[in-house]
TrEMBL record:
Domain spans labelled Succinylglutamate desuccinylase/Aspartoacylase catalytic: 40-225
Top-level EC class as recorded in UniProt: hydrolase
Keyword Zinc: yes
Transmembrane spans: none
GO molecular function, one term: metal ion binding
Protein's name in the database: Succinylglutamate desuccinylase / Aspartoacylase family
Listed Gene3D superfamilies: Zn peptidases (3.40.630.10)
Length: 361
């Protein structure tokens, strides 16, 4: 008995490459199906949820070319480019058809616009068939990013635990548990009981063979961790470090539109009080200045000169106790930060939780 995914079909012990037809458009999604010689889990690995994040796309495309049925236990779905509509048009983060960010509309809507329908199709036709999900991303053209991995945190307890185990197989300095339960593909999959992770590596709208190879290494080691990939890791694929849980991830937004002057780079450790960046008006006057109340690591940040109002600027993380804007110490959750944004707004930092920002990168 074989495996059917839409118009594509693969027999046990076979590998099939083809285009998955979508019922609402002429666009087709490039897919590789690998059915191993042994039964096991069904796993989805995809790239191109954000169509200009090329490290993820080439990571999945390369794995599809290299992996064979003899390597696999179970069924592996490799979806090379999810937002092929935006990829062809070379738009950034959004579908060319309706200007929507695919990673902010899950579970989608069968009666919505193009992007809503695409998310709905993926949720109904693919998520319904899988046991695990690996979503491969990188920073967009306007983002500077240091490598790390997300795992779902707003899901059933056993799903979160398994997703965390997946994340710990990546060769990264740290992992972050996402508290978002909707909007993003992997976030929403987690609420369905599917252990899911999102790999982040690369940025600035560019890609390199080294970054692709590193993400492929992570995907393969995660597949090994969950019992799908039967091959032993080569020396180059050995995990050299186990990521540490980054307890707290916070987000900084601009209040106003302006010109952005970042002072730090992604991956840098910054001390409390250090200047992270300035937002200037169109005459060169500083209108916002951004500093942190605590030592932290910059996860990713906007690097574009132009910044709209209420726009994401910086995401940072740290391991220790948070310091709120009133000078007290307590453990912040994402929801707490969002709730207290207006109550404890810092004139210089503008810090609040942006769960949905996780879905933009």
């Amino acid at each position: 008995m074989g495996f059917q995914l839409g118009n594509l079909y693969v027999e046990k012990g076979e590998k099939v490459c083809g285009f998955l037809k979508l019922p609402f458009t002429e666009d087709e999604l490039p897919v590789t199906l690998i059915y191993g010689q042994e039964e096991g889990h069904t796993v989805l690995v995809d790239g191109g949820i954000h169509n200009a994040e090329y490290v993820g796309i080439e990571c999945v495309t390369g794995l599809a070319a290299k992996l064979q049925p003899k390597d696999i236990k179970g069924i592996l779905i490799l979806l090379h480019i999810v937002n092929v509509n935006g990829f062809k048009a070379r738009t950034v983060s959004v579908s060319a058809e309706d200007g929507k960010n695919l990673n902010r509309v899950f579970p989608g809507d069968a009666n919505g616009t193009y992007t809503d329908k695409l998310a709905y199709f993926i949720e109904k036709e693919i998520f319904s068939k899988i046991d695990y999900y690996i979503d491969v991303h990188n920073g967009d053209w306007f983002e500077d990013l240091t490598p790390f991995i997300y795992c779902v945190g707003n899901a059933p307890e056993e799903t979160v635990a398994e997703a965390e185990r997946m994340a710990q197989a990546a060769d990264m300095p740290f992992y972050v548990k996402s508290q978002s339960g909707k909007g993003g593909a992997y976030n929403y999959a987690g609420t369905l009981g599917i252990p899911s992770v999102l790999i982040e590596r690369g940025c600035n709208g560019m890609w390199s063979e080294e970054e692709v190879a590193a993400s492929q290494k992570d995907v393969k080691n995660i597949l090994r961790r969950i019992g799908m990939l039967k091959t032993r890791p080569t020396l180059a694929e050995m995990q050299m470090r186990v990521p540490k849980h980054m307890n707290h991830a916070h987000y900084v937004d601009s209040e106003k539109a302006g010109c952005w002057f970042p002072k730090k780079k992604a991956g840098q450790i910054v001390k409390a009080g250090e200047l992270l960046g300035e937002l200037k008006d169109y005459f060169g006057n500083v209108i916002e200045e951004f500093r942190l109340k605590e030592d932290a690591i910059i996860l990713y940040q906007t690097i574009s000169y132009s910044v709209p109002e209420n726009s994401p600027l910086i995401a940072y993380g740290h391991y220790d106790i948070c310091i709120d804007d009133m000078g007290n110490t307590h453990q912040h959750t994402h929801d707490e930060l969002h709730k207290h944004r207006k109550e404890h707004y810092d004139d210089h930092a503008g810090i609040h939780s942006r769960e949905m920002w996780e879905d933009m990168i």
